[in-house]
Each structure stands twice: as structure tokens, then as C-alpha cells.
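Proteins fold reproducibly. Consider a sample protein:
=====
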Amino acid sequence: MEPAVASKVYGNSMYSKQQIGEDVFTIVKRKIDSAAGKACEIILPIKQECYFGNGSSIAICTLSSMNLLLEIAKNSNLMNKILIVGRLLSENRGIDKIIRFSIKNPSLHHIIVCGTDVKGHRPGQALLSLHKNGINGHGRILDATAHYPFLSCSAIDIQLFRSQTLVHDMIGTQDLEKLVSQVSHLSK
């Protein structure tokens, strides 16, 4: 039996403890997905990820609905009531960013998840699963159906996020009036 080590070498690649628990197919697939994501950023750059409002306790996540993101950003009445509106395209790095932002902004208590979820990655479903179920010992979001729902945030940060922020499921909603109504309800 081999002693436990922080990393092992297989072929010409070095893998972390987390990766050792994964099968080779998953490791290769994750590396391909990462490379594809970086290529997409170069080929199809998205100019604006988020817009800041004048509120403090509500955020809106439009998932992959870029037109909805722009529509909300142009609505000054809505932007005066929310802290931030942004997109979410990945089930790992994107959610890590949301967790870090939430912790840096402790007045943020509500995240409305709306718009169209990204096929395959399903970051909206992963975010809802994270809030409801947390992660396992390897950083995997429990019950997430995404391709690679592994987070790099610490378990303590994730628990803090889960305890201070409510995530509201409006996935599929692109109706601005429904979002305005939900924001008005939450801001009372």
C-alpha cells in the first residue's frame, strides 16, 4: 500500500488528491472542458459580465440570458433596488465567484436565479443544489447534474454563503415584470 501523498504522477502528468479520487475519463474531460472554455473566451468574447446597482441586499443572476442582463441593466428603477446583476455560465468557477462576492458583501441576502440555464453545465441548477445540499469532502456540489460541479472555495466559505444568502429559483423566467415584482417583494 502506498503512503498518502499530496500529489501523484501518472504518465507525464501530476494530479492532486482531489483528482486522484476521480476516474481518468473525468480528469481528461475536465481538462478538455477547461481548454474549450478558454478558446470560447477568445473566439466569442462577452463584453460585460455584470452591472452594479445602488441597492445592497439583492442580486440577480441571468445565467446565459445576455439580453435579459442588458435589459435589467438599462432599467434604472430596478438597478436602484439591486446590488448587482450578472451572468453565470459555469458550474464551478462562476459559482466560486458568486460565493466570494457574497462573502465580501455581507448585506447581500437574496440571489434571484433567472434566465436560461446553460445546457450541459447547468450552473443555475448547480447553484440551487449548492444552496440546498452543500458539498462533499472533495468539493463536489451534492445533487448537481452539471459536468464538473467542483468548487475551489473552502467549506467554511461555502457554509457562510449558504447561511447568509437565500437563492430564489426563477430559472426559465425572462419576463422583466416578474423580476421587478420579485425584487419589490424581497426589498420590503
User: Anything to note?
Assistant: The domain at 47-186 is CATH 3.40.50 (Rossmann fold). The beta strands are 7-10, 13-16, 50-52, 58-61, 84-86, 110-115, 166-171. Confidence is low (pLDDT under 50) at residues 1-13.
